[in-house]
Amino acid sequence: MYKIIILIIFFLNGFISIAQTQPKLLFKSDFAQAVFLDKPRNFYPNKKGAWQDLKGKDNQSGFTWSGGALDSDFMGIQYITYDDMTPENYDDLIHTEIRQAPGPCGWTVPELFISVKKKAPLDTRFAQAPLLIRRDYRKPDVTDLYVTYWFKFRSDLASKLDANVSSGNWQTLFEFKTGGYKNTGNGDFRIQTTVLKNTAGKLYWMTKADTGANAAPEIPFKDVWIYRNTDMEVPTGKWFKFESYWHRDADKTKGRYWNAIDGKVLFDVNDVTLGEFKLPVNRLFVVNPYSGGNPPVDAEITGLEIWNTFPCGQFRSCYQK
């Protein structure tokens, strides 16, 4: 009888474990019809930014932008500017719209278009407009997440970047940050996927983890790990399928960060994915037109999906032409 009970417990534990790892779609949007951008609000007291909510129910997926995916308290565009921003001039600095455009397969689709039209001179950061999902840092961590979407860089991206100017040679695509340090929204860890340009004029990919989650100088900035891929093309002026997955762990043999472009693995990193204080993810920058290069800095996105794990098999791309 004792052995039977042990076997039953073992079976149930195995069943629960399997059930917990089943893929679950957490959010999906093609920015279709009823989805809209509200007017920017809560302009910063220093006139350097504002918040813009995405609202409405996506009539194709049934998900609602104000529904709080990932237990979020904000889903929309965060405006961060170098110039003073007011309710009268925000569109002169950062333009956002949901529009119809030729899509990944040639037919017309709705897309979210973001353009940082004015920014500081080369190598000066600040101006950006991420599509942001923000969470309360007191919520449980997002230990596993898979994100995919179709994306398009400007066709002249390479000419906008300048490798001969300090920090003038990069544009961010995707990142997440943690929060909760000393009970604030600032954190101890960040991972980014970024495009850079080398001195020979070639674009290449980089991913890195660092402590740049806005808690400096108390948490000094340092790179935790860096990986580069100079072999895979950086598509410009055309749609590509971006996929990203993370599993968060302080053990570098268990932590994982994975990216793919059009079904081909871009990065598959086994390394530390938790910061020193093991703070939770509180900001997901789905896309971020943020660059040290010349403006305008654009982002075009459609077909966004967020899952709790890989939906197409462990470490398998979901890319379909």
Structural account:
8% of the residues lie in helices and 40% in strands. By secondary structure, the chain is mainly β. A hairpin with an 8-residue loop joins β13 and β14 (256-261). It is globular. The N and C termini lie far apart (55 Å).
Q: What's the short story on this structure?
A:
8% of the residues lie in helices and 40% in strands.
Number of helices: 3
Helix content: under 10%
CATH topology: Jelly Rolls
Radius of gyration, in angstroms, nearest whole number: 20 Å
H/E element sequence: HEEEEHEEEEHEEEEEEEEEE
Biggest pleated sheet: 10 strands, antiparallel
- Low-confidence parts lasting 5 or more residues at pLDDT below 50? 3-20
CATH architecture: Sandwich
Number of strand elements: 18
SSE class: mainly beta
What is the topological layout?
Elements (H helix, E strand, L loop, with lengths): L1 H19 L4 E5 L6 E2 L11 E7 L16 E9 L9 H4 E9 L5 E9 L14 E5 L8 E9 L4 H4 L9 E9 L11 E8 L5 E8 L12 E7 L10 E8 L8 E6 L2 E7 L10 E7 L2 E2 L5 E11 L14
Antiparallel strand pairs: 1-18, 2-3, 3-4, 4-7, 5-6, 6-18, 7-16, 8-13, 8-18, 9-10, 9-16, 9-17, 10-11, 11-12, 13-14, 14-15
Key features of this structure:
321 residues, mainly beta, Jelly Rolls, ten-stranded antiparallel β-sheet, eight-stranded antiparallel β-sheet, 18 strands, globular, disordered N terminus
